[in-house]
Design brief:
By secondary structure, the chain is an alpha+beta fold. It is 32% helix and 30% strand. It is built from 2 helices and 5 strands; from the N terminus they run H-E-E-E-E-E-H. Helix 1 crosses helix 2.
Length: 105
């Protein structure tokens, strides 16, 4: 299946290597979330994860990966707030799990 290399969250076309990098980083985060017993779905036209508590899947959090102005890559909430650098997926997983569990209560 071919992937559309342009995406909705940018005014500019994204390069294929950037799309692959985002996807790989999100897979690292998904792997880091396994011990927290959360539902993790890949989705959207832009590489992202949708994470929810299986006890309350009505609420989910979206996580994306993007570079800042200095070129550093970050896991971010969909609204843009930084979670952790992409080279720290375990730290990001702990933060995401805390938020998802707190929201689902």
């Amino acid at each position: 299946m071919a992937h559309n290399r342009n995406h909705a969250d940018s005014d500019n076309a994204e390069s294929w290597p950037d799309w692959q990098r985002r996807s790989a980083c999100l897979q690292d985060l998904a792997n880091g979330l396994r011990p927290f017993a959360l539902l993790v779905r890949h989705g959207g036209p832009v590489p992202e994860l949708r994470i929810s508590d299986p006890r309350d899947s009505r609420h989910s959090e979206r996580v994306v990966v993007s570079a800042d102005s200095s070129g550093a890559w970050w896991f971010r909430w969909a609204h843009g707030e930084r979670i952790a650098p992409v080279d720290q997926p375990e730290q990001a997983a702990r933060m995401v799990a805390r938020v998802v569990h707190a929201v689902s209560g």
